[in-house]
Structure formats: C-alpha cells, structure tokens
TrEMBL record:
Its cofactor is Mg(2+). Keywords: Cytoplasm, GTP-binding, Ligase, Magnesium, Metal-binding, Nucleotide-binding, Purine biosynthesis. SMART domains: Adenylsucc_synt. It comes from Candidatus Ghiorseimicrobium undicola. Plays an important role in the de novo pathway of purine nucleotide biosynthesis. Catalyzes the first committed step in the biosynthesis of AMP from IMP. NCBIfam families: PRK01117.1, purA. This is Adenylosuccinate synthetase. PANTHER family: ADENYLOSUCCINATE SYNTHETASE (PTHR11846:SF0).
Length: 422
C-alpha cells in the first residue's frame, strides 16, 4: 500500500517520528517538496536525529530513500547531512536517490531571501535558506537543476546568464556587490562531483517500483497552512505541501496513492510570522513551549503555541482527502486542568465554520472555544488506546467529531515505543 503523509497545521506536527515508524513496512520513502527549511526529528533509543533533506526513513536498513524532483536542494547542506549520518554509522551510499530534476539552491538565493525579508514591512519569518527565491527561479524558467550541474557546459551557460542578471539586480536594488561566476562555478562543480553518485531518474524509478507492487511512503514536509496555494499567504513556504504536491513532486499518478494520513499535534504551533487565531498569551505559551520542547529543528527559533484549531484541521483534511489521522504530543497536555479547542471563528458578529481566506478576517478572528477537562495523568507509558485516561479519550473523540476523521495513531512521547496504534 502506498501512503502519503501530510502535515495538517503549520509544520512541526511530528511527521518525522510517524514517517520513521511507518517506514518499517515500506520499501521506498520519498520527499516530494520543500528543502532544507524542513527539520524532521526522530528519536531512536537515546539518540536524536534531525533531518532536513534526506527522508527520515534512512534510519531503516535497505529502504530506498528518494528526494523527488519537487524538492529544492542546497548541496552543501545535503553533503553535511550525509556526513552527519555517516558519523552515526548510517551510510546512504546504496539507498539515497536524488532526482536529476531537483532545482538547486545557489548562494544568490540564500542572500536574496534575507535581503528581501529585511526590506519587507510585513516579514514572513523565512528560515532564510533560499527556498522561496529558488522556487521563484524554477517558475521563471531560469533555475539550475541537478542535471545541469552534472554537465559543465550547460551549467556554465545557465550560471553565466543568472549571474549577469542577478548581479545587476543585487547591485541596483539591494546595494549588494554581487557574485563571482568563477567562485560559484568551481564550488558547485565540486558539489556535483560528490552528489553525482546519488542522481537518478527518480520518477521512472518510482514508476518501476509501483509496477513491482513495492510499498511507497510519501513524506510531506511543512504543513498545510504553509502551502503556497492554500496556506496563510504570504506567510507560507513556496511549495505545495498538500497531497497534490506528491504527484508533481515525485512524478507519479494520483491513482498510486492508496492511503492519505494527516498528522496533527494535540495543540497547535507555528514558527515565523502570520496569523494564528488560537495563539496562547505569553505566559502560557512559555509554559507549553518548555513542556513540548517547541523550538524550531532548523533555526532553533521558539515556536508560537496555541490551542488545537479544528477549523484549520478540518480544512486541511478536506484539502488532502485525509483518511486517517495521527495525533502527536498528547502527553504535553497531560497535566492541564482545562483544555480548549477552537470550533469556529468569530469576526464582526459573524461565525466562520470554514477557513476564511480574507486576510482581515483571519488576522482579527476570535476563536470560539469548546472547553474540556484535563486528565491529570501521565500518558507516555500507555500502550493501548482504550487505556488512555477517560478525559483524554473524551478529548480525542471530540476532535474526531470536529474534524470528521478517524484518529488511528496517538503519539505520547518522542520515542518510537511511545506510540499508540488503534
Ligand atoms: P521559508 O520556506 O524558509 O521561506 O519559510 C517560510 C515560512 O514557513 C516561515 O514562517 C517558516 O518559519 C515556515 N517554515 C518553513 N519550513 C518549515 C518547517 O519545516 N516547519 C515549520 N515551519 C516552516
């Protein structure tokens, strides 16, 4: 069975852990969008691994891990990640495949990300990794792909054009000295040499896998409300995070996806700027952040925290056709007296049960909350769904009703064994 795993909030839902668990029974694990802005944390025993580009499934032996064409690649960061894994005794040499069609993040993308952000009056809170400018070049048809890096003549042509155009913009608009062709050319050719062993026609590879009835897991990065089309634009990332991104980002037919699993936290978090209707006040936010270790895995930035927002989750489930839900970090709510869930928004006397796209509404909407009693018990040792405290079961059952979806996995800690399957 082929599964797509999608984040239903603003990223950091704990997808890395769920991917790691589901990978056990899969043959291929595929990233299809985003870049090294993502940070997927997986805890194995007492060791914590953080992945930015390589699918978290790499921790399992004999799985083919694919970076699909929809991903943007920063070669230095990729090579660092490969080294970091090697130091932990995990070799990617046989099992990592990178699409020749991935676009490559260049130094000017990273610098432009930061320069643009510094000039914006409404800052996005970008990770500054050059993701947006790289995708912008892809759409503008001037991007450089992995396959271009492998052909020094083509790479030279494309880089020359790019540097000429970028340098003019950097100097005139941003008062930046610009970039040296020679420096980037030789640096990136050296990267290409190291990366070339992993490069493949991954769309064909996956199509062949499908023909052989292999099991594929598509690993989403970021969350639905960071999706370039459906997220809280412009406070979003620059790729399609929702299930539609799987087909374009991996080169497979939608008919190949048998199951769509959505991942939500038992509450909500967000890194970076943008509207967040259920955000806690500072004191309570600090408390939950500490308890849930809510700091960005990529930038270390403190995450903003808030109550579970059923309006968001419901919309995300519908957008991706999610059939089963994994709820993570339930244990973080263990000792709370009261827990709130947002069931609708209110703005100027009007109730919004559906996610409003009008920015003014979203920014000023007041959540309509339903109150739940806490369970005041530790859940992290519980192995069976039915053994969860009664109030935790009430909470989960209410969430199921509000999001019209079945909760199949509950995560009650960062370790593999702290997971309840229903
Ligand atoms: P960018 O994609 O790095 O430009 O970031 C755009 C927005 O998406 C910012 O608010 C980031 O904090 C957020 N973002 C990007 N990647 C992730 C992620 O993996 N988890 C959570 N937020 C992310």
């Amino acid at each position: 069975m082929n599964t797509a795993l999608i984040g239903l909030q603003w990223g950091d839902e704990g997808k890395g852990k769920i991917v790691d668990i589901l990978s056990e029974n899969c043959d291929y694990i595929v990233r299809y969008q985003g870049g090294n802005n993502a940070g997927h944390t997986v805890v194995v025993g007492d060791k914590e691994f953080i992945f930015h580009l390589i699918p978290s499934g790499i921790l399992h032996k004999n799985k083919v891990c694919v970076i699909g064409n929809g991903v943007v690649i920063e070669p230095e960061s990729l090579l660092e990640e490969i080294d970091y894994l090697a130091k932990s005794g995990i070799s990617v040499n046989k099992n990592l495949k990178i699409s020749a069609l991935c676009h490559v993040i260049m130094p000017y993308h990273r610098i432009l990300d930061k320069l643009r952000e510094s000039k914006r009056s409404n800052k996005i809170g970008t990770t500054g990794r050059g993701i947006g400018p790289c995708y912008a070049d892809k759409i503008s048809r001037c991007g450089i792909r992995v396959v271009d890096l492998l052909n020094p003549r083509i790479f030279k042509e494309k880089l020359k054009d790019n540097i000429a155009e970028k340098n003019e913009i950097f100097q005139k608009v941003y008062n930046h000295p610009g970039f040296s062709f020679d420096e980037i050319y030789s640096k990136y050719l050296a990267y290409a040499k190291k990366i070339s062993v992993f490069v493949a026609d991954t769309a064909t590879l996956l199509q062949q896998a499908l023909k052989k009835n292999k099991c594929i897991l598509f690993e989403g990065a970021q969350g639905t409300f960071l999706d370039i089309d459906f997220g809280t634009y412009p406070y979003v990332t620059s790729s399609n995070v929702t299930v539609g991104g799987v087909c374009n980002g991996a080169g497979i037919t939608p008919k190949a996806i048998d199951m769509i699993i959505g991942v939500v936290k038992a509450y909500t978090t967000r890194v970076g700027e943008g509207p967040f209707p259920t955000e806690f006040d500072k004191g309570f936010c600090d408390f939950i952040r500490k308890k849930g270790k809510e700091f960005g895995a990529t930038t270390g930035r403190p995450r903003r925290c808030g109550w579970f927002d059923a309006v968001l989750a419901r919309h995300a489930i519908n957008l991706s056709g999610v059939e089963e839900v994994a709820v993570t970090k339930l244990d973080v709510l263990d000792n709370l007296k009261e827990i709130f869930v947002c069931t609708a928004y209110k703005y100027k006397g009007k109730i919004f049960k559906y996610f409003p796209y009008d920015f003014e509404v979203l920014r000023n909407a007041k959540p309509v909350y339903r109150k739940f009693s806490g369970w005041n018990k530790t859940t992290s040792k519980i192995k069976k769904f039915g053994a969860l405290p009664k109030n935790a079961l009430n909470y989960l059952s209410a969430l199921e009703g509000l999001i019209s979806s079945r909760i199949k996995i509950v995560s009650v800690g960062s370790k593999r064994e702290e997971t309840i399957f229903r």
